[in-house]
Design brief:
about 350 residues; six-stranded parallel sheet; two-stranded antiparallel ribbon; globular
Length: about 350
């Protein structure tokens, strides 16, 4: 296969870059009519006719991560990272409507009582950890600095002794597997809340693609298991509990599907966490099958930013190191404005 994006489309007149940082309702019926007219005007064919199938995998492009003043806004070094990323992402989608076969947005999906939220943990005074500033290690549990909040056991339907053993096993597994320590985050991506929704401008672009190309958007839910983190859409951070029984599963269906595409383009938030871990898991699968498959993967480096909390944490170095490793493995690190050749 040797397919090249040689003709990029214009940006539709409904798109306004200044609205990317805002939350608003997408006028679906109006956009649908405009999308059908746009397809006719620019001779955009149905995705079913694509000889080369291209997937755009969008990691957690949700209000909770991408809108200033929301729970876990990914500002990156600039302080406006996710907003700028999504402006470029929207324009990338519109310019390349004719070659993107399928768009797969992942949806980080949480409830309050999960292992990475404050209510799950208490200290001797009954206080909860400070979000974003607290990491919980095996030593913290051994010393009694933090323990599982007894009050959550009943609501979650678990025996408290089991939850205690699971929590200790869990943080040990993170350490042994070379993962980040368990970070206690602000409540975010709450199911049913406005933070869970896609960024309005990106949702609009995705919907426009769906109608223009007759291509159903494929949403992937992740992160709803209360006993494990799920940065990657392909697998949770820890698969088995202290009793050796599975607590979660790999998303083998999506892994297989992604590897069947001729090309997979990846963007989203955050570069240092959910994006990096998703790519890392995909690379692991690729290397177990055929290392040459890495050439199918394209990373939009200007449509993703690392987690940076000024004065607290800065994951820029880790994110950049991960992308360098992915490039060394054969993946393509590109910019959204480039003319991309798929081989």
């Amino acid at each position: 296969m040797n397919t090249q994006i040689t003709t990029q489309l214009p940006i539709p007149p409904h798109y306004h870059l200044e609205k990317v940082s805002e939350v608003w309702r997408v006028p679906y019926q109006q956009r649908a009519a405009e999308a059908q007219a746009w397809a006719k005007e620019h001779n955009i064919k149905s995705a079913s006719t694509d000889k080369s199938r291209v997937c755009l995998l969008l990691i957690d492009v949700q209000n909770t991560f991408c809108i200033p003043d929301f729970e876990l806004f990914v500002g990156g070094k600039s302080g406006t990272g996710a907003v700028n990323d999504n402006r470029r992402l929207c324009e990338f989608i519109y310019r390349n409507l004719g070659v993107i076969t399928t768009i797969v947005p992942t949806m980080d999906t949480h409830t309050a009582m999960q292992i990475f939220h404050p209510i799950f943990w208490v200290n001797a005074k009954g206080e909860h950890p400070t979000p974003a500033a607290s990491s919980i290690t095996p030593a913290d549990i051994e010393k009694g600095i933090w323990k599982v909040n007894p009050a959550v056991a009943f609501s979650l339907g678990y025996d408290y002794e089991f939850l205690e053993k699971h929590a200790y096993h869990y943080v040990k597994q993170l350490t042994e597997n070379g993962k980040y320590p368990l970070t206690v985050w602000f409540y975010h991506s709450m199911l049913g809340g406005i933070g869970h929704a896609l960024v309005s401008s990106v949702e609009e672009a995705i919907f426009f693609h769906c109608i223009t190309r007759d291509s159903q958007t494929q949403f992937e839910i992740k992160g709803d298991n209360p006993l494990t983190e799920n940065y990657s859409v392909l697998r949770p951070e820890v698969l088995s509990g202290v009793d050796k029984k599975p607590i979660a599963q790999k998303n083998t269906r999506l892994i297989q599907q992604l590897l069947e595409f001729d090309a997979v383009i990846i963007a989203g938030q955050a570069k240092s966490h959910c994006v990096a871990w998703t790519i890392d898991d995909l690379l692991t699968e690729i290397q177990q099958i055929d290392a040459k498959l890495a050439k199918k993967i394209y990373l939009l480096e200007d449509c993703t930013s690392p987690v940076v909390v000024r004065g607290v944490v800065d994951y820029t170095e880790q994110a950049d190191a991960a992308f360098e490793r992915f490039a060394a493995a054969g993946m393509h690190v590109v910019k959204s404005t480039e003319v991309i050749s798929f081989f």
